[in-house]
Structures are given as C-alpha cells and as structure tokens.
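Mods, move this if it's the wrong board.
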Amino acid sequence: MSIPKEPRQLMINVMYLVLTALLALNVSAAVFNAFEMVDKSLKSASVSLEDSNAKLPAAIEEGALKKDEYKVYAERAPLARQYAKEFTDYVQAIRDELVDESGNRDGKVDDGDYLDMNGMKQLIGKRDYSAVTRIMVEEGKGNELEEKISEYKQKFLSLINEDERQGFAANIPLEIDNEAWKHDLMKRKNWADFTFNHMPLTATLPIFSKFQNDAKSAEAAVLNYLLGKVGTTKEIIMDKYAVVSSPSKTYIIKGEKFETELMLSTYASDKVNTGLSIAVNGRNVPLKDGVAKFVTTGTTLGKKVYNVVATLTNPTTHEVSKYSKKFEYEVGERSVAISAIKMNVFYIGVNNPVEVSASGISSNKMTVGMTGGGGTISKNADGTYNVKVTRPTKKGEFAYVTVSAPGIETSKKAFRVKRIPTPTVKLGRSLGGGINNGEFKVNRGLIPFLEGFDFDARCNVVGFRMVYAPKRNDPRVAKNRGGKFGAETMALVNKAKPGDRYFFEEVKCKCPGDKYAREVNTLSFLIK
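Not the wrong board. Structure tokens:
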C-alpha cells in the first residue's frame, strides 16, 4: 500500500490506526476483566464450601456416639479437613508467589502489589507472563502441582472404606486433563507447559482457585460419606447374593500353602436352616458358622484358577439357588528387587527415593541397610525408602543398599555417588549474544538452572563480577553478591545502549550438599 501524499488523507489513515489500537485494548481489557470476575466468583464459592464443611465434623462425631464401630469414621473427619487445608494453603502459596513476582518482587504479597484504580485495587502485574512461565514451567512448579493433585486425591480416597474407593473416586474432583496437551498444535512438553507457558498472571488465577475449590469439594464429598456411615438408622435388607473369597494372600511362594475363606456375602443363618453348601472345583468344602475354608499347597509355579459354587436352599419355599464365581491366585518363588526410582546414581544434598521389595516376604520382616558414600537410609510411610549421601564415590568405588530377610540370601545393589551437576546460569532465558535493549534491562538477576536433572533441588548464585563496556568509553566493573542485581550492578544495567557490551564473569553457585561454591559459565551480551 502506498503512502498518501495529501496531508488530509494521511491524517485519516493515522486516525484509523489509532482507533484499531484502541479497540484492541478494549477487547484485551474486557478479557482480563472476565478472568477477574471468574476468579472472584470461584473465591465466593470457596467461602460457601468452607462454611458448609465446617459444620459437618461435629455432626459426624455426634452420630459416632451411637455405636463403637462408628468411632473410626469420626476419627477420619479431621483428616479430611486437614488434607483440604494443606492443599489449599499449598496452592495459595503459589498464587502469592506469582502475584509478588509479577509485582514488587519483595518476597511478600502486600498492598504494594496492587494499584488503586478509581477506588478499586488492581494487580500491578496482571498482564505479566514472564513470572508465570519461569516459576510454573521453567522452575518446575507446575509439575510439582500436578503431582500434588494426584497425591491429595489418593489421601482423600484413603479415608473411604477400601472396598468402596474405586466407585467413590468419581466424587473426588481433583483431576487434571493429561491428554489435551499431547494433541496441542504447539507441541507442548507436558501439562504444566500447556497450562502455564506464556500465560498472563490474571488468566492463571482462576485455575488456582478452581483447584482450591476442587479440594474443598473433595472434602465435602468425604465428610458427607462419613456422615452417611454414622447417620443412618434404617435397616438394609439384602435380597441378592454373591460369592466372596477372602484369601490371606494371592501370591504365594513355592512350597507354601494357599489359604482363603469362602462365604456367601449375605448369609446370616446356619447350614441346617438354609442348606448352604460350598464346593471348590467340584469338591465340597467343610463349613463352620457359615464359612468354608479352602486350603491347598502351591506345588508348581504360575497362575492358578479355582471355581467356587455356593448352593442355597430357601427354608420356606425349599427353592434351591446356585451362585458361582472364579478366583485366581499365583504361585511364585522368593526373590528380592532393589531399584532406584530415578537412576543408579545417588546425589549428594537431595533425597534419593529407592524401592525395595522381596516377593512373598512381608516388608516388616526385611532388614534394609546402607553402606558407602557416607550414606543413610530411612523408611517412608508409603513403604519406599529414602537415601541420603554425603561423599562422592571414586572410580571403582560404590555405595550399597543391602537387604536381608528370612529364607533368602542377603542381597545388595551398587550405586555411584555424585555431586549435583553444575547448573547453567542464564539471564532470563538467554545464555549470551545479541539482546534487545529493553529485554536486557527488564532482568533483575542471574538464575541457575539444573537442566535435565530430575531431582527436587535448587542451586543459588553466590556472586559474580559484571563488566560494563560502553561503546565509546572505558569499561566499568561491579561486583555483585548473590544472584539478584545489587544497586551498583542495576545502575550499570540501566545504562545499556545499542553497541554496549556486558560480561558476567567469575559466576559462582552453591548447590545442595556443596561445601564450597563452584564456578559456572560466563555470559557475554551485545546490546542491540
């Protein structure tokens, strides 16, 4: 399109451009206002949920007074409240961190992170996306949130009777869509990248509010379930029957006996009145108080199937009914498996999770130990183990996890011990080279990244030396303590002009487990 020569036409064209820009700003503002309205609505719903949930534990405790067996449900109610608070506090901490990092960045959320606009407070950094991308994607907070969602769903389900958990799982709304990101045209790396990468702060806040509401909804579902367990006084009449096998264990070692209790689940009378009989693979099994005990010996390895048929005679009509079902158990041999959950290397300064299992042997009969690498091993509540090491191994030297148990030889597995890999320090996302003047000045410090390191560890910049070389003046030097730019360094950064050069030298970092700071990469920038 040619530029009009007539001043009047040129002015009209400029006005059209200005009008288009204003319309775009209005649309953008409307969208951001919509996000804020959704977040406000979610917060209001959260308050209502909290008020409703707060009343239920007292009702559950009152109902539990009816019978001693109800006490277990009253004991679970405080845990439901605790899990909901732990998760919502965790999510709130992420919200606060993002609000602060997008605003004042002074380590706390206060009035300084908001502006008064016509009597209403608005977030300073509501359009900022750099802090969200850095914290949730680059620093791995989004992946941690994904794990927490799964962890707390299981915690809530642990408060439900084991035989009802599978059906109850749909009532726990703590879920993420872990499929959509795989089909995204942007080829996202994971759920966190799909959800938070390049997202403005205001757009993410309703997401966090939604997860907080999900936790409180899960709390409400569990509390109402517990209330139902202690609050009903109606007698339940069973009119259907099912065969039940209750084995002490379904996997046995060669030479061991397989034992299971077989019963008709609704049976409440004796054999004389009901004519109940139970047969396994065509052979009758003796009954005692309505329960048949089937015992056999595992002589060969592999999966075994047994068919149970229960025959019941109605004492009034003399009608005979049969109910059958197939069950399985497996015969195996004793063996021990020791596996590092992440890799066959232990790292100094972090928790190294390890799984130890011995098939056919109860975990409380195993003795697990640790030698080498200055290491110690401790058992977690979920049955896994945690290894901590303090000294790297030399070539040909290893740390060992050892396992001993009745009936097996002591087994051990070798692991190397290393320091946490040296991090890569970046200015924002850049390792150096040409950089736009505005992009350079917006940064507030150097950030170390442990790229490709799967463990939860964070290194810190101890200090560095920055050389500012103006295009036509003598170089100036500033020494900086820590990764965040000090006043002297920041003053030189703000002087950046096209053609100037900046060098970050003698950059030192300290990682978990380090006694001394280690020198890392240098950075060189040319201002464009």
